[in-house]
């Protein structure tokens, strides 16, 4: 294992064991206060456990036993980079200087640091902003720069703490896609509230509740067959498989699903005729009893198969698709199994990625 953690923090009632293999992305999911950020802090070296160990690439970073610290590598020497909700760029430095900072601090030459910075800014799609100051960037741009800064330091492990939580919904899909591409090569732990992040970014998921790992496994397995209460609440994403047809329209094209639906969505750089999946949350689906129009929306005429409570909402299932609506909306619709309804989801809510 590249990363192993087996540690406890008594006053936060956190006691967990995690393992992440080389090149793998693990998502930590769980309700507020479950202990996700605490686990990241233990790995990053920002928090000392009451007992336990943290190992990265066979190097013992933390070892606390019998009330004594046997090993403690300080945060700056762990080869671990952390990306938080806020980009936290140094305001008085240019974008490029922010990204050069890590390589320079590691003793690389000015020229090498500059080349590395430009390469990463290019990869995350903001090379044209290199000379700007952080204060003049949008939230999405700043977060891309923060990704470049984190990776320019060549960390062995990347920790992401809700990296998209502070972004506008319009820019989230594109930043998520950038992360998906760069994370493919990294060993990574991502804390998220958003099941879509887990579905698109993570190979494996660990569900944390009350400071304990209550469920873990391959993302697809956990989302398809959740065994914990939290897992069940977040599962049920809509997922359509098919072929992407680029046509240059408002969203660049549509996915023709093997189940017949045609779906517009956000597909950054997906080549035409690629096998792809379209993913969207049940809560992004509006339900109507009459046909709806209005672009850029996807509308599917479906037959309701079940209506059941789902947390504070009501989940309306129609075969392989699901919509979560408020209890009031469900009451107004007054639909039950067998009813014909229209599911509608904005193209901006649909993420497409290679299958
Ligand atoms: N700095 C702190 N000092 C003491 N207790 C803390 C501290 N930070 C968090 N806690 C407590 O530790 C427990 C775990 O919190 P943690 O922040 O790790 O949860 P989380 O899963 O990251 O939550 P969220 O999703 O709300 O960010 C909670 O009971 C919390 O109140």
What does the model show?
The chain has a six-stranded mixed sheet with strand order 7-8-9-3-10-11, with helices on both faces. The radius of gyration is 22 Å and the shape is globular. It is of the alpha+beta class and 355 residues long. The model has no long low-confidence stretch (mean pLDDT 88). The protein has helices at 36-44, 95-105, 110-123, 139-152, 172-183, 195-201, 219-224, 229-234, 327-333; strands spanning 3-9, 14-20, 25-29, 51-56, 59-65, 68-72, 80-83, 157-161, 188-192, 204-209, 212-218, 238-246, 253-257, 262-264, 275-280, 286-288, 297-303, 306-310, 313-318, 321-326, 340-346, 351-354. The chain has two domains: 3-234, 3-Layer(aba) Sandwich (Rossmann fold); 238-354, OB fold (Dihydrolipoamide Acetyltransferase, E2P) (Beta Barrel). Residues 12, 30, 32-38 line the site of adenosine-5'-triphosphate.
Task: Describe the secondary-structure layout.
Blueprint: E1 3-9, E2 14-20, E3 25-29, H1 36-44, E4 51-56, E5 59-65, E6 68-72, E7 80-83, H2 95-105, H3 110-123, H4 139-152, E8 157-161, H5 172-183, E9 188-192, H6 195-201, E10 204-209, E11 212-218, H7 219-224, H8 229-234, E12 238-246, E13 253-257, E14 262-264, E15 275-280, E16 286-288, E17 297-303, E18 306-310, E19 313-318, E20 321-326, H9 327-333, E21 340-346, E22 351-354
Helix pairs in contact: 2-3, 2-4, 3-4, 4-5
Bound molecules: adenosine-5'-triphosphate (ATP).
Adenosine-5'-triphosphate (ATP) is lined by residues 12, 30, 32-38.
